[in-house]
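dumping the sequnces here before i forget
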Amino acid sequence: MIRRRSLIPIIYIIFLMLPIYWLVNMSFKTTNEILGTFSLFPLEFTLENYKTIFTDSTWYLGYANSLLYVMINTALSVCVALPAAYAFSRYRFLGDKHLFFWLLTNRMAPAAVFALPFFQLYSSVGLFDTHVAVALAHTLFNIPLAVWILEGFMSGVPKQLDETAYVDGYSFQAFFVKIFIPTIASGIGVAAFFCFMFSWVELLLAKTLTAVVAKPIAATMTRTASTSGYELGLLAAAGTLTIIPGAFVIYFVRNYIAKGFALGRV
Amino acid sequence: MNKTVNQKAWFFVTPVLILVAFNAIIPLMTVVNYSVQETFGDNTFFWAGVLWFQEVLNSSRFHEAMGRQLLFTFSILAIEIPLGVIIALAMPRKGPWVSVCLVLMAMPLLIPWNVVGAMWNIFALPDIGLLGRTLNELGFDYNFTRQIGDAWFTLLLMDVWHWTSLVVLLAYAGLVSIPDAYYQAAKIDGASNWSIFRFIQLPKMKRVLTIAILLRFMDSFNIYTEPFVLTGGGPGNSTTLLSIDLVKIALGQFDLGPAAAMSLVYFLIILLLSWVFYTLMMRDEEQ
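..and the predicted 3d for all of it:
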């Protein structure tokens, strides 16, 4: 029995799935079929588009590049955000509120404003077209976000935990690594998820900072779409493949996802 | 939580400070630098004072892009926030379906932005797209690449598709934090559904909804890739939002001075409005 109330989420999820379905549908069609006929499912089922992607190095290296800079960025952002978030959640210090807001302003900064200066900055330090450049550039909005999320989760841990550990003779480092980090493990998972997510979906900066060696998959897609005519099938297959890593990481954080989006502040 | 005063906490925030400052302050100073100078492209610069700022603030092109931006941002806030709350209220609180719902709903959030644009382009094409074809079969004259109204409709629908889930997830997180005892008490008092919503659920969601509005406001004001891939700013300039216009001036025409001045004005507006939201949010937290 389906209650009337549950119709709303069902309709909403169908609405969400329709464009995704259409993309997947197209990825299994030949270009001729896409342009020639209109059908809700592939009439001549083909894996040709996927085969092209997995055999052409400009395509599959694009995936490797994207995953590489996303992972560097996630590791870096979470590692530096951990002590900072601890400081914001436990201590009051000179200029703490201003610093916190200043960090947030970088989350608000339009990427379009930074595209050109970033290009010049990373060219002048010799990092242009490297994975590290994109990973560093993405810390601009990922570190503030990671600090924000972790601070929310850490504020939910009572301060008595810290004090008890000191009474038990733990040094600060031992307490932080052995007790505190395991306690907020779910928060770290959520923060890592968000860093992964925003680094994975961002394109403007990633595209501006790379040319050949570190070119992300999303940029490969734009170029192919514009230069070699309109290979919709190939474009759809590449698009479908970019959805998979996201779906994979959502699955891992599914139990914390709602709390994570609320930045631990529920 | 009562925090202790400890100035040594600065050591903890130093790594963050260095990294973010490298990425934020140097580029921002570059922008400020360009915004007050004139160049003829041969790497020689002349002091131009506030010329570019005057030009930007008085140009009708900037006013129009700003107008479109405000229309876009307030439209999607007006649709996504209530819609997200309605969906969150209708979601199951317990059981196996919760995870299924959450995972499926979060899907659009993890798709690269240009893929979102490309996907909607394919989906909405009047001849081969599911949405475009269906609307035309139903008798609507729908073509988002030619007609301004249709372009805006597609753009708003795409953003609703892309980001409503964020509001749903936030509102849902607020709702599940309400203890069952509240509902039982309301039942004993014979409260109507509306008063349960008004006096129990809405106050509990207030903080997460502030975050939702803050995030949606900032992100929709910065939106670039999705509309660029979907419509390219067209037809004409009808969907050229602020970021698209800015990139056109900066990277397309290489007019560094006006682009930099526009960047700063743009950034200051976002900063000001976000500060208002942030102050409201922090005031709630302290209560």
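Residues 60-90 of chain B form the longest helix (31 residues).
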